[in-house]
Design a protein that fits this description.
This protein is of the alpha/beta class. Helix content is 51%, strand content 12%. The protein has one domain: Rossmann fold (3-Layer(aba) Sandwich). It has a five-stranded parallel sheet, sandwiched between helices. It starts with 14 loop residues before the first strand and ends in a 13-residue tail after the last helix. The site of P1-(5'-adenosyl)P5-(5'-thymidyl)pentaphosphate has 28 residues, from helix 1, helix 4, helix 6 and helix 8.
Length: 230
């Protein structure tokens, strides 16, 4: 198991996580932000959870196929934790240490919300798994992309086309409403780390909102070059 530390040195990269319900636009926006940071000569990589490293991608396949579901929410949580452990030690911690910004599509808040708040896994287990898998590695900023449930599910369905819904997309509407409320609670509880982005708008507008959040929360300590300005 990893015990990474997050010593905030000037040369360490920044760690930004994207969170939100299904179809909230995380994948779309994370790529746009990476492009903008790289254009500003702030090296940034995009990764995702579950997944992001070879071992974690194998676990992703197991979980999203629904195979973990029959084992119950506790065991499913352990699978997400195992994937995160590999991802942090193989990709995230080394990238941050060499000064690269890491943009991660979902992270610990997904476990807190999906398995904890909604799946009713004991919060003590959730926190214990966090301690073991991420140590002190807290995101510098978490962007919570918030959209009405109907909007997110409609977008996810349109993107999926004729393919079957995955393990979580196929849950009932009430499940997704609970997710949204739980995410908003996480943001209320940790206002310094989390920024709620109204993502019920066109992609350019959402991208501009995200950039404003970075400017307000991160660039005071990691000033971008001129070319990063809107
Ligand atoms: N999970 C994950 C847990 O339960 N516990 C955990 O600890 C972790 C880490 C991962 C699943 O695993 C669960 C949560 C998830 O259910 P996934 O396949 O990685 O599943 O999928 P999601 O993270 O849910 O992401 P989605 O792919 O469903 O949605 P995104 O990334 O939020 O949305 P995106 O950008 O792909 O957009 C969806 C569609 O909408 C369009 C896009 O073009 C795309 O077609 N779109 C917009 N349309 C209109 N206006 C906009 N502003 C738009 N932005 C995007």
């Amino acid at each position: 198991m990893t015990q990474p530390t997050a010593v905030p040195t000037a040369s360490r990269g920044r760690f930004i996580t994207f969170e939100g319900g299904e179809g909230s636009g995380k994948s779309t926006q994370i790529k746009r932000l990476a492009d903008r940071l790289n254009a500003a000569r702030l090296p940034a990589i995009v990764t995702r959870e579950p997944g992001g490293s070879a071992g974690a991608e194998i676990i992703r396949h197991v979980v999203l196929s629904g195979m973990g579901r029959m084992l119950g929410p506790e065991t499913e949580s352990l699978l997400f934790a195992a994937a995160r452990d590999d991802h942090v030690s193989e990709l995230i911690a080394p990238a941050l240490a060499r000064g690269t910004w890491v943009l991660c599509d979902r992270f610990t808040d997904s476990t807190r919300v999906y398995q904890g708040e909604v799946g009713k896994v004991d919060p003590r287990l959730i926190r214990a798994m966090e301690r073991v898998t991420i140590g002190d590695l807290k995101p510098d900023l978490t962007l919570l992309l918030d959209v009405p449930v109907a909007v997110g599910l409609k977008r996810a369905a349109a993107r999926r086309g004729t393919e079957a819904a995955d393990r979580f997309e196929s849950e009932a509407l009430s499940f997704h409403e609970k997710l949204r409320a739980a995410y908003l609670k996480v943001a209320r509880d940790e206002p310094k780390r989390c920024v709620v982005i109204d993502a019920d708008a066109d992609p350019d507008t959402v991208a501009a909102r995200i950039w404003t959040a970075l400017r307000d929360h991160l660039f005071a300590v990691a000033a971008p070059r001129e070319s990063a300005k809107a």
